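Page 47, continued from p. 46.
Same chain as before, 105 aa.
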Amino acid sequence: MTMLATVAPEDRWFVGLRFSTARGAVRSHYYVVGEADDAEDAVRAAMHRAADAHECAARENAVIDGVEVRRLRWNPLGWAYLTASDRDAGASLHLGPGAGTAWSA
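Result:
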């Protein structure tokens, strides 16, 4: 009998961007980012994705007013989990009120 070794996927970043529309509605869009070296790069990559015309239309052109960053990891059994929030990830990007803070959904 041959045992197949399973390899856990590389860690990724889970970035949530919060938006407040002109009508006061709050929306959150989440992005899984694998190409970033750190939390700040992950936020930049998510913001780049959020700048896509379809994404802008989906959120009614609302401006980003909050960021949540977590690591998406896998345990040895292959179960995915999120790490605690990285509260400083968006702080240096000057996104506006609430930027760089985590929030609970």
